[in-house]
Every structure is written in structure tokens, then in C-alpha cells.
Amino acid sequence: MAFRTSNQSSASGSIGRKDLALKLLRFALFFMATAFATVPAHAVSLIRDAEIEQALQQLAKPVLRSAGFGVGRIRILVINDSKLNAFVVDANHVFIHSGLITKLRRPEALQAVIAHELAHIANGHLTRRATNARVAGRVTAIGMALAAAAAIGGNGDAAIGLAAGTSSSAARRFFAHTRAEESSADQSAMRYMASANLDPAAMTDILEIFRGQEALRPGRQDPYARTHPLSQDRLRAVKGYAASYKSRVKPTTPEAQYWYARMSAKLSGFLGNPRYVLRRAESKGNGEIAMLRRAIAYHKTPNLKKALAEMNALLKMRPRDPYYHELKGQVLLEGRQFDAAVSSYKQALALAPREALIEAGLGRALLAQGSAGAAKQALAILIRARSRDPGDPQMLRNLALAHAKNGQNAMASVATAERYAVLGRYDDAVIHAKRASGALPRGSSGWLRAQDVLAAASAAPKGRKGRK
């Protein structure tokens, strides 16, 4: 689908079977370093949307380059949470709450958030936080679901931990930065912004949002204020840095403004009240972003006819935009127009042939058609999607269904076991993995995948293996 929330993680890559034991040991060590108290793994809800993830990568690109990171190394993901927060827990991912993104008002502010989190990675602050997590006492392995995704994808290095709620003391200790770290990250982030010719003063936009938070009791503070301590001295320093770099600033590029507007429209359209979104979009006239907001709001109302009218207008404007074709596919699929949905998803995939989320949407639409031929096509497409994004539970659910429709019940059990493992439901995962192991030839690809699930489940800390 084009936009959905998913209690899951993602990983990619491959390793040899002989390395599995070593990788699983590394998983276990990682869990203990990146786990959080009281927050179940499946409570973490990511927003998976190809268009939003593309927008984030476009916005992050200049900052990544100026910070010395390869453009493809850092993945930026959105957590479906209205609280204002952003954080990193490993050297490959930046997580931003949807609430913070929708609160900001210009692309440079979001780029400043990304730059600040990249600075925590570049400056080595993750090492200290791993120590904090170990000291926090007996921790629960919220990273287990993500490590399971890495295990079934065959990439131990991709295992990461997530936490959407940070109310527990252990989580706060894990995420907490010292004032010295914040000052260091501010300086680095401002340097990254200036080097990319972006306005470093955008950092003050963020700090002003949280001004006065430190005077509140911890339970009333936004997570960002609890994890990124703010002081008047820090705010003054940031303003000073911004003034010193002012001469390097260039106007925001039209490309950055465009992708920021599209991402904001997508988030507000799907997460907001459709009536409010429609009122706001109608006041903005017939521009592209207003049409996008209306299309989503009509889809949510639901009003299929009006949603499709807006989508067709968008596609007339941008006929080769894969994300608009994908969104039209979602509108049609959820409006039970299955044949037309398949057509739209195929057009989207032709324009973005390596996009796993679009592949997963096409597979789902083909399954909805209900024919044996469509089920066969769906299986091939979903297998390819899994190879690129093995930690997507909805894709795994549809993959299991595709295997079953093609008479491959043992492989359906493998995909189901992987889905339960990603969701942190290890008892259920073990049941299906054992069922698959007993039905598949020993040493076959499916049998090996089932063993990976069993190994990941056996590595789960005691008390974390049951259904939540």
C-alpha cells in the first residue's frame, strides 16, 4: 500500500549459513545494549510509505554529504507517534516521530533535526548510551522484533532497537544525552548545515518549540525535552553559531520545498481528521499539494469518486510519478476496484522498479483479484519484495497467503513464522517454524529460513517469547 502504519522493522542483505551462530550472538549482545523497559516490541509503529521515505532521503541528502555519510548508509524512518521526538539507537538509522515532523514549518527545520541526530552518530555518543542501557538494570528486548527481521533477512548487522514510548526510567536513561553531548551535537549539526548552504538558524526553530519545557515536571515534558536537555545557554550558543554562519546560507531549493510539502501533505492527510484536511485544502485552491491533501481526505471519508478525480488530476500533472500511481492503486484497492488497482500498481512499479513497498502493494492487489493466475504473479512479486524488505509484516502475511493459494502450505508456514517473529510473537513463530521444518526438505531454502526463526526465538530473553 502507499501509506500504512506497521508494527515492524526492516533489514536487508545476506550472509552465509556458517556465520549464523556468530550473527545471532551479535544479535543477543545488541539486544542487551539497545533494549528498553516495559515497552513491548510490537508496540512500535512505523509509518511505511515509499513517497515519505523518498522525501526524507531527498531532504537528508545534502546534510548526509556534509556530515561525511554515504547517501545510502543512513535510513530515516517515521514513527507513528504524536509526541515530539527524534533519536538514533545505532549508526544506520534516524527515527523521527510524526508529531515532530508535522509540528515543523519549513524543510530546513527538519534538516536541522536530521543533522543533529547524525551528529550524535558521528560524535560517538551511541557508545555511552549503550553503557546506560546496560546499567539500567533488567531490560526488556524491544529490539527483538527488529533482530528477528534481520535474522530472517540474513543480516545481523541490520538489527536495531526501537522505542515509540519513552516514559520508563530505563528508556529515559538510554536515550538521555548530557548537556555536553547536546552542545557538541549542536556545533556539528550547525557546521553540517552551513557546509550544505542550509540555514543553521533553523535549529532555533526546534529549540524554541521546547523552550520552557525544563521547568515542567518530567511527566508533562515532551520526550525530546527529556532526551535532549535544553538550557538558555544552549539556545544562546545556537543563535551565535547561526549568526556566524549566516553568510553561507542560500535560499531553500525548490526541490527541498517540494518534497517537504508532499511529505507533510501525506502525513497530515492520513493522520488528520478528513473534514479538517478538506477545509484546509479547499482554502489552498487547486495547486498540486492541495489536490494531494484532498485526494487522501476524500479517500478516508470515504468518497471513491472524488478521491479518484483528484488523483487523476495529479497524474495529468505528473504522469510519470510512481508515488501518485501507487497512491491511486491504494485508493482503488481499498475501494475494491481490484483490476484497476493492479493496473495502477503496475504503472507505479514500472516507474520505480526496485521499490519494495510498491511491489508489496502490487502483490496484495493481485491476491485481491482472486484468480489462480493472479495468485501466481503475486507470489513471484512478493518473493522479490521480501528479498528487499524482509521485515514488513503485512508483506509477509500476503506472502504466506500467496504461497497457500499456490498450494505451497509449508512455505506459507515459513512466511507466517517470519511474520510472527517480526511482531515479537515468538511462541506463535515457533509453532509455524516447526511445522515448516517438518514438511520441507532438510537443507532447502525454506527449511533454513525456518531454522533462522527458531534460532531468533531461542535467543529471546526469558519472559519475552509469548504472545503479547
From TrEMBL:
Query: A single GO molecular function, which one?
Result: metal ion binding
Q: Does the keyword NAD apply?
A: no
Q: Which UniProt keywords apply?
A: Hydrolase, Metal-binding, Metalloprotease, Protease, TPR repeat, Zinc
Q: List residues of the Peptidase M48 domain.
A: 53-240
Q: The organism's lineage?
A: Bacteria, Pseudomonadati, Pseudomonadota, Alphaproteobacteria, Rhodobacterales
- The lineage's top-level taxon is Bacteria
**Classification via InterPro entries:** Mito/Outer_Membr_Metalloprot (IPR051156), Peptidase_M48 (IPR001915), TPR-like_helical_dom_sf (IPR011990), TPR_rpt (IPR019734)
Task: Mark the TPR repeats by their residue spans.
Answer: 322-355
Full protein name: Putative Zn-dependent protease, contains TPR repeats
Write down the required cofactor(s).
Answer: Zn(2+)
Q: Which terms under GO biological process does the entry name? A: proteolysis involved in protein catabolic process
Supply one GO CC term from the record.
membrane
User: CDD domains from the xrefs?
Assistant: M48C_Oma1-like
User: In which organism is this protein found?
Assistant: Litoreibacter janthinus
